[in-house]
Amino acid sequence: MHILPAARQGAAVSAQSTVAAGTVSRWLQAETAGQPAWWRQIAQRGTPVVEEHDRQQVRFTWLWRDPHGDERRSPIRRVYLDINGVTDHHSTEPSTLQRLAGTDIWHGSFLLPRDWRGSYSLIPVQDAQLPPLFSADRAQCRQQQRTWWISLFPLAIADPLNPYPAASTRIGQPLSLAQGRTPPISAPG
C-alpha cells in the first residue's frame, strides 16, 4: 500500500492533495489494514483523506484509530463526526464513523464541494454516552436530543492524524481543520 506524499506537521492550511477515486476502499480492504505499518502510512499521509469524485465534489474520508483495539477489547461504541456546517445537530442520529470489523479502524466519508473548507471534531463514545430513548413527543424529543448532544462536547477530540495545528471553539472544544482541492482538475483532453 502506497499512501505518500506525507503532509507537513504545522503547515498552513491549504488545499490537501487528492488521491484517485477508490483509493481509500483499497486501503481498507488491504490485508494489512489496522496494523502498525498501515497506521504509520496513514499518519504520514494525514487525515481526512481527500479522494477525487467529480468536477464539483471530492470525497473526504476520516480515519480514527481506536486506542483500545478492535470491537472485542474496546469500550468505544460509536465515533461521532461533528463537521461544522455539515453535521445536523438536530438529528437524533448524527453522523458516525463505522468500525472496520476485527480492527482498530473507524472510518467515514462525505461528498463535499471541491472548495469546501471547515473544521470538525471526533467524538468517541462508550455505552453511557449513546443517545437516550427519545420521546415520541416532538418538543420533548428536541429537548432530549439537544441535552444529549451538548453532553457530548466534553468528549470531543481533535483528529490526531490531521497534519494541521488543532484549534478550539470559544468553549474550548477541540477542532481540526480541513480543506478540499481547488480549483477543479481540468478534464483530460
From TrEMBL:
One of its GO terms (cellular component) is cytoplasm. Belongs to the Fes family. One of its GO terms (biological process) is iron ion transport. The lineage of its organism: Bacteria, Pseudomonadati, Pseudomonadota, Gammaproteobacteria, Enterobacterales. It comes from the Bacteria. InterPro entries: Enterochelin_esterase_N, Ig-like_fold, Ig_E-set. One of its GO terms (molecular function) is enterochelin esterase activity. Residues 60-182 form the Enterochelin esterase N-terminal domain. Pfam families: Enterochelin_N (PF11806). This is Ferric enterobactin esterase. Coiled coil: none annotated. SUPFAM superfamilies: E set domains.
